[in-house]
Design goal:
The complex is a heterodimer. Chain A contains eleven helices and nine strands. Chain A is mainly α. In chain A, helix 5 crosses helix 7. The longest helix of chain A has 15 residues. The radius of gyration of chain B is 19 Å and the shape is globular. Classes of the chains: A mainly alpha, B mainly alpha. Chains A and B meet through helix 1, helix 9 and strand 5 of A and loops of B.
């Protein structure tokens, strides 16, 4: 017997209802990814007309001139520069086996970040670049790194940097891959948490509006610049760390970082940004 | 001149006196407490957090996802209708982003009553 408070929590906090967005943007649950993406990108181009497609990689700073001015100042001495250098050092450090990350990763890891996450047909699941790094460590008898911050975020910063200006290019190679994409999409549009809000409520419907003092960034381009140096964190953090923080904003229990749910979510969200030029690592407030 | 100021201060004293005498008929002490409590709950980040989405007089840095909460007595003939909007906004708009404060037990019944008292004064 579970205590009643847990039951209430389950009943009110963990249910996820799929919502249909009428009038604004509705992605049919069974539409194919390519037409979803077209609808999605057109929606934002219309909503923020006059903003260049590639500018969406700059999140809030693409759509709000005042925040943009502050951010331009920050970008003159970007707080993530040290992370790129540190990340490169870590990336090139030999494992106890004498090998390096470059020995595990496609193209030696250089200029591949914009093509992640990928659907791994053999593993039959979405694989993120963060996972590739820890898998490589384990193959080389090293401890895996924590997913949210620290060395992993630094290595990802370096790898993102080597993919700068390459167009995000996520592929959906099989029907199993499409199923994973659909799970991510469903999560994005499902109400969750005690506040009963979906990601899409904030980053699709209300993109550009203010939630208290924060402007909500458009979903399009949201994955282009991760990992991010966030002033509120005072350090680099990964995309899944941000996902978890946003889950908590809706007072939902966050999924574990790199869980299947968040990997599918990343797959969906990155696919929606196909064609936008990668610009990681980034700086945010 | 002196007489004028004396008259003025006398009338203003009278005004204060009559208004304080009149207070109980517009809002009694209990109601005033309810309104003050309601305001605190509405503004509290971990309670109503209404300012995340609504401009409300007296609240700093409001969001603009929802409409400013003004002229509530014109918008709602009864407190009960207002309470229903706060209890579960999805009844009026199934696609709403506004959290169902009552239905999802974000606030207790008592807290919602207080918030209604406050919002109805706007």
């Amino acid at each position: 017997m579970k205590p009643p408070s847990k039951k209430i929590f389950f009943k009110y906090c963990c249910q996820a209802t799929l919502i249909i967005f009428t009038g604004l943007l509705s992605l049919n649950l069974h539409a194919d990814p390519a037409s979803d993406k077209e609808k999605f990108q057109n929606f934002f181009s219309k909503k923020f007309s006059g903003i260049d497609f590639n500018e969406f990689s700059n999140g809030v700073y693409a759509i709000d001139p005042e925040s943009r001015a502050q951010w331009k100042n920050i970008e003159e001495f970007p707080p993530y520069v040290f992370a790129i250098d540190e990340g490169e050092k870590l990336f090139k450090t030999l494992f106890i086996t004498g090998r390096t990350y470059a020995d595990c990763l496609p193209e030696g890891g250089i200029g591949i970040a914009h093509s992640y996450p990928r659907f791994n047909i053999r593993k039959n699941q979405v694989v993120t670049l963060a996972q590739e790094i820890n898998t490589c460590r384990q193959l080389n008898r090293e401890e895996p790194l924590p997913w949210g911050r620290g060395d992993l975020a630094l290595i990802l910063a370096y790898l993102a940097f080597t993919s700068r200006d390459k167009e995000i290019s996520i592929t959906i190679p099989s029907s199993a891959a499409e199923a994973a994409y659909n799970k991510g999409k469903k999560l994005y549009y499902s109400r969750t948490g005690q506040l009963n809000i979906a990601c899409a409520h904030c980053h699709v419907d209300n993109a550009g509006k203010r939630i208290r003092a924060d402007i909500l960034s458009p979903a399009l381009g949201q994955t282009s610049h991760f990992p991010v140096y966030r002033a509120r964190w005072g350090e680099m953090g990964t995309l899944h760390r941000r996902f978890a923080e946003c889950s908590e904003l809706s007072r939902a229990k966050a999924f574990p970082l790199q869980s299947e749910a968040y990997r599918n979510l990343e797959y969906f969200l990155s696919y929606m940004s196909n064609g936008i030029k990668a610009n990681g690592p980034g700086a945010r407030k | 001149m002196q007489r004028l100021t004396r008259i003025l201060s006398l009338t203003s004293m009278l005004a204060i006196l009559t208004s304080s005498l009149m207070l109980p008929t517009t809002a009694n002490a209990d109601e005033k407490d309810m309104i003050a409590d309601g305001k605190a709950i509405a503004f509290h980040r971990h309670k109503g957090n209404c300012l995340a989405c609504h401009a409300i007089q007296g609240g700093l840095l409001p969001g603009n996802i929802g409409p400013p909460l003004v002229s509530m007595q014109d918008r709602y003939q009864t407190k009960r209708q207002l309470r229903e909007q706060i209890w579960d906004a999805s009844v009026n708009n199934p696609h709403t982003i506004m959290p169902p404060f009552g239905k999802y037990k974000i606030l207790t019944d008592d807290e919602i009553d207080k918030v209604v008292e406050f919002i109805y004064t706007l």
